[in-house]
């Protein structure tokens, strides 16, 4: 097999590669004083607070290149970090990206990855200011750190929920998880019989939610417009039941979630049925939705009802009541808590 | 074989593990407002600049657990990042650490790693403010991001060297590289014949330089005491010839290095001879010394001569002269440039 479009990483060398890949990244933030190319990057925060988050993504653990295009992977690697900053009510400003790769990857593959990173940077207005590339024995490893800014009074932590607060979520739930189930199924079919082409038609929403999630900047902006500041907030990366636990544990509260209020997309619902799975299980335990889960004082409910794409799904209760689910038939039960545990 | 001291990671779970490992890390920096346990960490820089650097370390690429104890690995993972901040003349303040590990590793092994991280944090006065753990298919991956602070007029970049400047280096060169050669040799012997115990006696310096390097905070402090601000600076991670290239390329200069001035430790010298290697090759191309290479105006030379542990090894020249080495016998030749290229 000839592959005329393949350039070996070794043709460029380590320094050449990172220069090549980041050549079209311009520093746009006025306060990104120094980007890639020195021992460290320099950021001026002009007295505002710096908010920092980091994620380490490994091939075969956090992503599968059999169905995840490199460009999407680059985009998603950035977005999942920005999502964490929005969940603090902070504004993302800069990222660093380090990549380790084996010689299985060509320069063109890395270009795709950095294209995706670039598109995410453009879309969310953040600068790539640091990072490097090195080799791996096997597989691809991506480490992204994101820096954001906020004034102290703007920050929203996980520990501020109060009994009586309403519990709200943006968007819909379980779609990324059902997208993953579909992709995994088609992968298995393809491995068993490469003649059969993957059938992803008719499921653009759930596949897109898995491969190209967005961080909910729009929700943060909408809350600000409405003059609303959540008492607590978290982004849904591990799944509603697991992430709600973080809020309750850190706030010292319980919570009651109404099954009938949980927002679901039609495609998610149908795919769950196709997999003989309770759609509620997908909504409660499916990870990677990157929606925002937040609490607000109950007397702000009327403002939330006016906000498109935000659903009130429950309320915060006393810690003694635990985290409970009111099912569609009116029973209350302990919230089934089986998160998206990467160490499971 | 029974192993009573082994606790499986799965006994704690992902959230349990990171909580367990970081329980004894207190935030000491007054401006580390929020550490581990939320979507992101929060840092108040009070109007000073934020300096950011990140490193991704992979087992079998950047370290070998056959001779690198976990505690040392934790320590070194932090130190190599702090070294980058000192090379900017910035003060390290906070770090984030993400770890991915396979089920080969026990909780006790992770405790050792975090012990080393903790010791480094204590020694250098930095706070661990974020990060996480996840699983890997195979091997250990460590990603460290370090945040530092500086006033704008304190920062030293790589691009400020001027023809005529003197070229200075702290400590001695090539020791970490010769330590690595020794460790690799003893590993090979051990693999071939496990009866033979590794013979590291008599080489504490070079082994220590490889397994437990320090970041040269003391040099930064000494320069400050003397009222000296380098015109350019870099830390020696890839090797003198490679790192000097960065300074020259970014400053638009050449350089002349005097072979006879290069500082070497007796153990390094003897081990190079034992390996039938020119000691100069170890000094020029050996990586991981984490010494500081910096330039100063020539009229500051007299102050440098008073500074213990700092050696003037050459001078900055016009770009047209390239990067050259004046050998011990008085010849000038192009600097042999074969860095510590992880993608080689």
Map the helices and strands.
The structure is a homodimer of 344-residue chains.
Chain A: H1 9-22, E1 32-34, E2 41-44, E3 49-58, H2 70-86, E4 91-101, H3 107-124, E5 127-130, E6 133-135, E7 141-150, E8 166-170, H4 175-192, H5 204-211, H6 217-225, E9 232-235, H7 240-251, E10 253-258, H8 266-274, H9 279-285, E11 292-296, H10 301-305, E12 310-318, E13 323-326, E14 332-334
Parallel strand pairs in A: 4-5, 4-6, 10-13
Antiparallel strand pairs in A: 1-2, 3-7, 4-7, 8-11, 8-12, 9-11, 10-12, 13-14
Helix pairs in contact in A: 1-3, 2-3, 4-5, 4-8
CATH superfamily of the largest domain in chain A: PurM-like C-terminal domain
**Sheet having the most strands of chain A:** 7 strands, mixed
Mean pLDDT of chain A: 90
Oligomer: homodimer
* SSE topology string of chain A: HEEEHEHEEEEHHHEHEHHEHEEE
- Main sheet strand line-up of chain A: 9-11-8-12-10-13-14
Number of structural units classed as domains of chain A: 2
Global Rg of chain A:
21 Å
CATH top level class name of the largest domain in chain A: Alpha Beta
In CATH, the architecture of the largest domain in chain A is: Alpha-Beta Complex
User: What's the count of strands of chain A?
Assistant: 14
Query: How far do the termini of chain A sit from each other?
Result: 40 Å
Overall structural class of chain A, as computed from helix and strand content, comes to alpha+beta
Helix content, binned percent of chain A: 25-40%
